[in-house]
């Protein structure tokens, strides 16, 4: 994944291959990459092990396209860095914040430890539900944009 700056917004750019066109867009497979591929802690890193395990399965994303795309087309996709940061905050911050808030509230009410743990889990589940609702409502905001089509050689 590389980053480019377009005007004032920074875009994260990745290449993918069209696997299934549909009216107005296509499904694109993008290879997964480890964010810490150059790290020196190669042997003891769980993130690296997870990245290697997931690398065998490409990620599928839907894109909008004004022009028709064909199976096998190589495309450049861009996603604003701000959208990635916002998505991370929603995905991690909301469930964890509600989980901690639930546990702290239960503790403040001097409930027993099992009930504090249950309040933590309840906050986590509520955060997951709100996250799912947010993603459904704002899915287009987190969808990669088609930047260029680099038709396959041949």
From TrEMBL:
Its name, as the record gives it, is: Transcriptional regulator
Could you list this entry's UniProt keywords, alphabetically sorted. Membrane, Transmembrane, Transmembrane helix
Residue ranges crossing the lipid bilayer per the database entry? 89-106, 112-131
The cross-references to InterPro entries, in alphabetical order and at most eight, read: RseC, SigmaE_reg_RseC_MucC
- Pfam families (UniProt xref): RseC_MucC
Which PANTHER family does this UniProt record tie to the protein? PROTEIN RSEC
């Amino acid at each position: 994944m590389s980053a480019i700056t377009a005007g004032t917004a920074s875009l994260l750019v990745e290449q993918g291959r069209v696997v299934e066109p549909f009216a107005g867009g296509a499904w694109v497979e993008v290879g997964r990459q480890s964010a810490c591929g150059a790290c020196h802690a190669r042997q003891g890193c769980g993130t690296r092990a997870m990245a290697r395990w997931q690398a065998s399965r490409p990620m599928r994303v839907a894109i909008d396209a004004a022009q028709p795309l064909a199976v096998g087309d190589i495309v450049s996709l861009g996603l604003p860095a701000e959208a990635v940061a916002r998505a991370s905050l929603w995905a991690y911050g909301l469930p964890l914040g509600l989980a901690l808030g639930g546990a702290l509230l239960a503790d403040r009410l001097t409930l027993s430890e099992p009930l504090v743990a249950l309040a933590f889990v309840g906050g986590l589940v509520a955060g997951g539900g709100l996250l799912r609702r947010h993603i459904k409502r704002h899915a287009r905001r987190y969808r990669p944009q088609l930047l260029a089509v680099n038709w396959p050689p041949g």
